[in-house]
Specification:
Blueprint lengths: L1 H5 L16 H6 L32 E6 L2 H12 L5 H16 L9 E4 L4 H7 L3 H13 L2 E2 L4 E3 L11 H6 L5 E3 L10 E9 L3 H7 L7 E9 L12
Parallel strand pairs: 1-7, 2-3, 2-6, 6-7
Antiparallel strand pairs: 4-5
């Protein structure tokens, strides 16, 4: 209580006093519709269309909200300004979105793994933002969690500094799996990331796992679909 008086919290989006993300701004965030993550067309249960699936594609990808000017402020404050308290707020919002969408049923009996940061990036920030959210989700949903299976081998720089074509054309997979962990014991893997742009990161992570393991992803934000550059599917 004393800390709140001495250091009052303000909404990082609109500046209202009370919370880092006020209730008005929470409601103003635009929810993403259920879609196939590859072609970006509507798809029940967020499933990947059969016509869109490649040799190794994610089974389904849940996205909470549209990545726009409002959500960009939240992510940048969280990732680059080290405002740790946003983690709990984002987790609360994310769990509400997942539960209300019915996607919760796909998280039963899964192993939740956050997209890892390189050692240098984690050392620079002091934390991995997806790890904090994954840890809290694991506790709240009573599902398995591991931050030691997936590793980022090299630091290729911020994806946010690349344009769309550079992200699409970047082919190198800078992730690997911890060889000391037997992944064959898991039937379902859920990848957690904060922002999806082209989908290259989660695609590269999915390729590390054998086809007999169901791999899906959940993500906080993703930008508007560019239908003019996507493949039509049904």
């Amino acid at each position: 209580m004393i800390l709140n008086i001495l250091f009052p919290q303000y909404c990082y989006i609109c500046g209202r006093k009370g919370n880092y993300i006020c209730n008005i701004c929470r409601k103003a965030l635009k929810r993403n519709l259920p879609e196939c993550y590859i072609c970006r067309r509507i798809s029940p249960n967020y499933s990947t269309h059969n016509n869109c699936k490649k040799y190794k594609s994610l089974e389904r990808v849940f996205v909470g909200w549209e990545y726009n000017e409002m959500s960009s402020i939240i992510i940048k404050k969280y990732k680059y300004k080290c405002v740790y308290d946003i983690s709990k707020i984002l987790t609360d919002m994310f769990l509400d979105a997942i539960t209300n969408s019915g996607f919760y049923k796909y998280l039963k009996d899964t192993l939740l793994i956050p997209v890892s940061s390189s050692f240098l990036r984690k050392q620079d920030r002091g934390f991995n933002q997806t790890e904090l959210i994954a840890q809290e989700m694991s506790k709240r949903l009573s599902i398995n969690y591991s931050n030691s299976i997936l590793r980022k081998s090299i630091d290729i720089g911020h994806q946010s500094l690349r344009d769309r074509n550079e992200r699409i054309n970047y082919k190198e997979n800078n992730f690997n799996l911890n060889k000391n962990i037997n992944i064959s014991t898991f039937k379902s893997i859920t990848i957690l990331d904060d922002v999806i742009t082209t989908g290259t990161t989660i695609e590269n992570v999915r390729k590390l796992f054998p086809r007999n393991i169901t791999v899906q992803a959940i993500c906080l934000f993703r930008g508007k679909p560019l239908y003019s550059t996507t493949i039509s599917s049904s």
